[in-house]
Every structure is written in structure tokens, then in C-alpha cells.
Amino acid sequence: KEWPGGGAGGGYWVSSAACCKPGGWRARQRSSLGCRCPAWQVSSFCPPRKSCHDWIGPPDKYSNLRPVHFYIPENESPLEQKLRELRQETQEWNQQFWANQNLTFHKEKEEFIHSRLKAKGLGLTAEPGAKATLNAEEMAEFYKEFLSKNFQKHMYYNRDWYKRNFAITFFMAKVALERIWSKLPLKQKKSSA
Prior knowledge:
Blueprint: E1 14-15, H1 16-20, H2 25-32, E2 43-44, E3 55-56, E4 68-69, H3 78-119, H4 136-149, H5 151-183, H6 186-192
Antiparallel strand pairs: 1-2, 3-4
Helix pairs in contact: 3-4, 3-5
């Protein structure tokens, strides 16, 4: 489910600093609402206390990924807990990778534009108030260079992403089997033992 009101200032969205600052008014507010948010989340939110679903928020401004607030059932089995923790760890890993990657991309893009404009004898502004830019062919050179330079990093990321997704899928299957097994009548369980 997506958090209604989304975006900056909508619903219960707060910065991680406000969420995790001990003793702050937002920390007290979130605590009174029964929220448990991971400290690493750049944008965190709090679904209603009685919610029994995972909640998906608006895209993070650094990674462009949508953060997920994972539902924790009261009677969570050890296998369900392991699955949830693996999903949370994967989300954190993904968040950190893309936040760093996007920061690097924007920094190098600005440096590229600045160096090309300087080589042409132009400043960062073309006209008063207007930012000078490069054309599509010139920017294509940057994109190609950036992808080539980061090829190895993206290859390792994709390999790890697939490994993590296979592990999550494996645990999801185990949890599904555990749930089916727990719903079988007691007599059938005893007869198969």
C-alpha cells in the first residue's frame, strides 16, 4: 500500500534526523504511534498502528528508490523474521548503492559540463539567469564515458542483486510452505509423522 498524502510534508513523512533524534517531539510522536523505522532511511514514514501490510513511500531524493516500511506481525516466526530482515538489509544495501551512484553521477556530470564550457570559453551562465548547457551529442560522450568507467561496479552490483533476490525468493518459498504446513489439520500432521 502506498502512504496517502505522500511527498514532502504529506502524511507522517519526516526526515530520518527527526525520526531518530532521541527525545525529539517527532520521535515521541512516532513512538506513541507505534513506529519502528530503520535509522538508515533517508525518508521514513509511519503507517497507522493497526496496519498489517508493508507500506511503500514516495521516491527518496538521493537514491530515487521508494522506501518500504515492513510490517512486523506479533506472531512472526523465526523464518518470517529472517525473511523480513533479509529484505530490510537488501533495501538498505540498494539504497546506499544508488544514493552513492547518483551522487557520483551528478558530481561528474557537473564537472564534465563545466570543463567543456570552460574549453569553449563560456561561463556557467549563457544569459543573465539562464544556465549554460551542452547539446545532446556532447552529453552522449559523458554518458558513454561514465558507463564505461562504472561497468565493473554495475556488473558486481547486478551479480549481488541477483544473489540477494534468489535468497529472498528462496526464503519466501520456505515461509509459504511453513504457513501451509501450519494450517494443515493436526490429525494429518500426526499421521505423516
